[in-house]
Amino acid sequence: MNIKEIIEKRQSNREYKPDTVEKEKIMQCIEAAHLAPSACNAQAWKFVVVDEPALIKKMAEAANSMGMNKFVAQAPVIIAVVLESANVASAIGSRIKRKDYTQIDLGIAVENICLQATDLGLGSCIVGWFNEREIRKILQIPSVKRVPLLVTLGYTENEQRVKSRKKIESIYSFNKY
Ligand SMILES: Cc1cc2nc3c(=O)[nH]c(=O)nc-3n(C[C@H](O)[C@H](O)[C@H](O)COP(=O)(O)O)c2cc1C
Prior knowledge:
Blueprint: H1 3-9, H2 23-34, E1 45-50, H3 53-63, E2 77-83, H4 88-97, H5 101-119, E3 123-127, H6 132-139, E4 146-154
Antiparallel strand pairs: 1-2, 2-4, 3-4
Helix pairs in contact: 2-5, 3-6
The protein binds flavin mononucleotide.
Flavin mononucleotide binds near residues 11, 14, 126, 128 and 163.
């Protein structure tokens, strides 16, 4: 697939087959995150890959509330994305410019994971709705650290959906707002 095809093919997959995901493919997804850009090259992230069924079960319980995210229990792999400390340059930049570059960086790295997963024939879904405290406890992540996102990975039989998006004319303009 070329980049356009991968971008089009990536979608949030909320059904997974129980098949094991090869470690090599998981590592290719981590390598894609590793190569992501970040403000001042801070790379303020750590990816905790979870493939132990007992942990997945607990994480799925922490993600399932108000009717959201029941599907997480089916995922054979969940990557917990942990926000680490930024380097000095990024932290100062964030303060001066009043924007948290590290959150932006994490989003880019996570999309790299999802695009790489797509190219490897894996389904994925970014998950932002979960009990973060519980996730920290389950994965022994220090309580001072934030866990902004989880990413589910696995083989899926989900059909390709037509993407539901705003009209393209409404999201861009040239030369003025
Ligand atoms: C930051 C972020 C958080 C998300 N959290 C969830 C979530 O908790 N549960 C879920 O099912 N999907 C979640 N999604 C997936 C979005 O619902 C999905 O990307 C969007 O509806 C567009 O659909 P598509 O990914 O299939 O193109 C999240 C996506 C992002 C980028």
